[in-house]
Write a structure and sequence with these properties.
Layout (H helix, E strand, L loop, with lengths): L2 H17 L4 E4 L1 H11 L5 H10 L3 E4 L8 H6 L10 H4 L20 H13 L2 H5 L11 E2 L5 E5 L4 H6 L6 H12 L8 E4 L18 H18 L3 E5 L1 H8 L7 H4 L3 E4 L2 E6 L2 H6 L3 H17 L6 H4 L4
Parallel strand pairs: 4-5, 4-6, 6-8
Antiparallel strand pairs: 1-2, 3-5, 7-8
């Protein structure tokens, strides 16, 4: 990968983190030195900018103008004096990636349709080709008569091993949120935009899905929503929101959470992903997610106690 492309990818990831509300990130000295070495291998405005930002090392704010202001240091697209080329902007697109599958659910009840769709997903050649070594395709799970459909981004390390969504640390936190609502995991439905964990070269962490990956899997997700027919869909995080509402690089989660959106006639609530709360466990962030869940409960006319109103995740 060219240094310009790698730099732009890093800038886009930092912008994505900012759009999800993350205020600070941590760079350890080893990673900063490696980044400096790579970026100093050739001259680049973005490289010099990032190196100067990271020279202080340690924790940097994604909001403070004194330490790491993404709007000025990274540049919003509308203010960028030297925006990346269109070729680089389209880096996330792959013309050779398979087109989205065309699905037509069979006649029958929910169970018959769900099992038919599961067979299609588990036997999908593209899904299997995208898997990491020894990993499994991950299909949605839960109550087929669920009133709430929680939609995440993509399987993580634990999920791809077990073949079930939300079984890692983020899943455990989601379970706590669901239980705090007075219901159980078994009463809701859990799914993801992607059916596989996106491949990447790092030994840890997760890569956000590309637009092509999301567009390929969306028909499988929408078919699950069609089968379940929930009364409310909850989009967990920016990727889930983009997958359900359409890709918009300028969309900020903070601008669309806390209010109702529409997904083909189904009320859609956008909120932060549980993994975001694990990395940014501030009381304010937790309270925002809980307020979103209170709105879901109100929409479904679920009983809400004073203890639940005052609850912090």
């Amino acid at each position: 990968m060219k240094i310009e492309e790698a730099t732009y990818a890093l800038l886009e990831e930092l912008k994505r983190l900012r759009s999800e509300g993350l205020k600070e990130i941590y760079f350890d000295e080893k990673n900063v030195l490696a980044l400096e070495k790579a970026m100093n291998s050739r001259e680049s405005d973005h490289s010099e900018n990032l190196v100067s930002i990271l020279e202080g090392k340690g924790r940097h704010s994604l909001a403070s103008s004194e330490s790491f202001n993404l709007s000025s240091s990274l540049g919003d697209s509308k203010h960028a004096e030297n925006p990346p080329s269109e070729e680089i902007r389209q880096k996330g697109r792959n013309s050779s990636f398979p087109s989205a599958p065309k699905l037509e659910l069979p006649e029958g009840g929910k169970a018959e349709k769900w099992n038919w769709l599961k067979d299609r997903v588990m036997s999908c050649e593209t899904c299997k080709q995208q898997l990491n070594p020894n990993a499994k395709v991950v299909y949605g799970v839960g109550n087929l008569d669920a009133e709430i459909f929680f939609c995440g981004e993509a399987p993580g390390a634990e999920e791809e091993q077990k073949g079930e969504p939300f079984v890692g640390p983020a899943g455990n936190l989601l379970d706590r949120i669901i239980e705090a609502m007075g219901i159980s995991r078994d009463s809701v439905y859990l799914g993801n935009i992607l059916n596989w964990r996106p491949q990447h070269s790092q030994a840890y962490g997760n890569r956000p899905p590309t637009i092509d990956e999301m567009e390929f899997c969306i028909p499988y997700l929408m078919a699950q929503i069609q089968i379940i027919r929930p009364k409310v869909v909850v989009a967990l995080g920016k990727t889930a929101t983009d997958g359900l509402l359409g890709h918009n690089p300028k969309r900020r989660l903070s601008d669309c959470r806390g209010r109702w959106n529409d997904l083909e006639g189904i009320p859609l609530m956008v909120t932060y992903h549980p993994s975001y709360l694990l990395h940014n466990p501030s009381k304010m962030s937790k309270r925002k997610v809980w307020e979103d869940m209170l709105m879901v409960m109100e929409k479904l006319e679920m009983p809400i106690s004073q203890k639940q109103k005052d609850y912090f995740i």
